[in-house]
Fold:
Amino acid sequence: MSASLKPEDLGSFRRLLEDLNDRLRGNVDRMTDEALRRNQGEASTNLSNVPLHMADVGTENYDQEFTLGLIENEQETLKLIDEALGRVADGSYGICAECDHPIAKARLEALPYTRYCIECARKLENTA
Structure:
């Protein structure tokens, strides 16, 4: 366990990660349902005699791509949360994966699923 985190802090971060995990899973489920309903609506529209306007089709495609992008981003965040919960379980939560130094508590409060301290995150961002 990180020297900078007390057991009660670790429990607090675990609960925060679990709550965030539940909320994001609900968001992903809702967005997926919405995207599926939108596709079903298009199928029924195509059966009518009213022609679809190209702009409407373009808007629908854009909306669907945008929703799929949001789902992908949230799934990546869910993966990071699961990894963070694993670090809580194995006692390595709050330790930078790059330099093995403690991650500042303020950083963990802002981004509880982070793997890196701010210095290493900046270095990695600049090299990417």
Summary: Helices lie at 7-46, 54-90, 105-110, 118-127. The first helix runs from residue 7 to 46. Residues 7-92 form one domain. The chain has a mean pLDDT of 85.
